Amino acid sequence: MITGPTWSQKLRDEIGKAVIGQDAVIERLLVALLANGHVLLEGMPGLAKTLLIKSLGTALGVQFERIQFTPDLLPSDVVGTMVFSPKDGAFTSHRGPIFANLVLADEINRAPAKVQSALLEAMQERQVTIGGHTHALPKPFFVMATQNPVEQEGTYPLPEAQTDRFLFKLIVDYPSATEESLMMQRWGQVTRQPALEPVANGDELLELRGEVDKVHLSPAVQAYILALVRATRALAEPAPGKKRYLTFGASPRASLALYQAAKALAWLRGLDYVTPSLVQDIAPDVLRHRVGLTYEAEAEEITSDQLIAQVIKQTPVPEV
Question: What is the pTM of this model?
Answer without folding.
Answer: 0.91
